Each structure stands twice: as C-alpha cells, then as structure tokens.
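Students often ask what a holo structure prediction actually looks like on paper. The answer is less mysterious than it sounds. You provide the chain, you provide the ligand, and the output is a string of discrete structure tokens encoding the 3D arrangement of the protein together with zinc ion.
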Amino acid sequence: MAQHAGYSRWCYNWGLSLWNAAYKYGYKPNILKLREVFTNHTKPLYPWMKNLSSKVYQYAFRSLGEAFKRFFQGLGKYPRFKKKGKHDSFTIDNCGKPIELNGWSHKLPFIGIVKTYEPIEATTKKVTISRQAGDWYLSCSYELNPTITPKKTDVVGVDLGVKTLATLSDGKVFESLRSYHKFEAKLSRMQYLNRHKEIGSANWKKAQGKIARLHRKVANIRQDALHKLTTYLAKNHGRVVIEDLNVRGMLANHKLAKSIADQGFYEFRRQLEYKTHWYGSELAIVDRFFPSSKICSNCGHVQDMPLSLRTYNCKKCGISIDRDLNASINLKNAVGLTVNACGRSAADSSG
Ligand SMILES: [Zn+2]
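The corresponding structure tokens follow.
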C-alpha cells in the first residue's frame, strides 16, 4: 500500500511539473495530453511501475485535473506538490466490476486481502486507501436507501454557539467538547517540547508520530460530536431550521474565530444537508441578516444584544431567557424567511 501511495504521489507530482513546464513554454496543458505523454514516453522508462496497479496513475491524474478545475473556478489554491508522508493515498477500482466489501476481511483488486478493524458492508466501484498517523484507512462511496424515521417534533430551531455546541428550541443543549480542549492543550505542549529536536532524527520522528496521532484523535472527537448532533436533528425533527452563518465575516473577528472554526459550521451544514435527505426531513436556512439573537422570542420586541450578554432580558415584556435558547426559538418561528437548502442525492454521500 505504501508503494502504491508512493506511485500515486510520483504521478501527481510528475503531472504537475509537466503541466507547469508546458504552461511556461506557451502550451495549453490538459490531463488527457499528460496521460498520453506518461503512458507512451515516461512509464516505459520506469520498470518498477509495471509491478503496481495502473489504476493508480489514472486516478492520480484525474485528481490533479480536479485540483486544476477547482483552481480555475476560484474554489481552490494552485495545486502543490505532494510530500511523502503527508496525506499519502491512492485510489483503485476493479476495472468496472463492483468491489464487494463484506465483514472484516476484504479482497481488494491488486492489493489482495486486507483486514479492517470494523466490519464493512458495501458494494462500491472504487476505494481510496490513505495513511493517517501510521494507520491505513479505506474509504469508498456506496448507495444507501434513505430510511424515513418517525418524527417526534415538527420544527426545531438550532442555534450554534461558542460556549455550547448547539442549543435547540425545545431547550435541549449539546455541550461543547471539553475533552477536545484537554487534548489540544496536550498537543501544544508536545509541539513545544519538540521544538529543539533535530529535524529528521529518530527522536523527532517518534515525537512527530505522537503528535500526528493526537491530531487525529482531536479530529475524531470533533467529527463524532458533530455526527451525533446532526443525526439526532435529522432523525427526530420534520424540519430543521438553522442560520446561514456568514462564517467568513465572523472569522475576521479573531476572538470568535477559533471556536467557530473548531466547531465546524460548514461541516455541520454539509452533514445536515445529506442527513435530512436520508431520514426524510427538511433543512431550512434562515437568511444571515435575520436578527435571531436580537428579537424577543416571547413578544417580538427587538433590542441590541452585545455578545457579552448571555441572557436576553426583554425591555418590553420582561421575560428573561438564555441568549442561545432565545435565538433558537426565533429560528424555529422564522417561517417565511427561510430558503430551502439544496438537496443531495443519497448516492453521492460517502460512507
Ligand atoms: Zn419580550
């Protein structure tokens, strides 16, 4: 697998450097031409490539093409060279035949038998194998038939917070992830202790491995909490109302930036989009100019609410209510101000 990942990286970097050179000399490069040059002129020069799956270079070029497409559409940065040990991965398929993943042991084309820590049941066309902090991961997409679940509540408003992960209009609160902050402190300490080690030395490598595994742990804890929240919302509510957050504007505010980036608002919305589709509910997005935190959810009065105020004390009707709960109730009631999120087909969702 390491050899295949290396092959994939080699092809990606080769393609990128040829693309750069072609562009420099006034040609208009494209992936098809690159592939042609590679198979006719370059591949025969490297006998070791014969022992590896030819699917690897096909997918490597395809992913380079997609990186350039994103760049030209203004969605991504200019493609960069891949480094060994960073995001090592490769993709293979079974020449058009389906790959059956069944149980703990799987026969992958070209690679052979691999065992997984968790059982997988899926029929897929291609698999991507990647290395993260020394462990290998298998990912694939497969078709899933949406299962419509019975809904306890018709409409729920969700306010994503800084202090808490989320507050629901029925009063339920999803707490912020403390354990995550604990690991984060450990992480910055390890990075600090590692600062004087000679780069590339055995001790440095050992410490880097530890740091990478901790990074993965932090990312997994965060992913897990978000998945639990979005699954709960989509499974139990007919309509989930959230705010269209102007994340870019908020990220400019440095105080807020960290916790917002931490809790992954984009990822929250992305998960809700496909999960509401899976479980037969609806996602509604409220316009970002809707003043969800300034309105009184009891009488409709509007007053300023500086971020430091954690409680909404209405100057008109006198109600005293938690800031986030007030906002989530306003979102729930914001009928007519919502735009429906675009749906995603279940087949697109990767498992
Ligand atoms: Zn009021």
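The CA atoms of residues 180 and 220 lie 10 Å apart.
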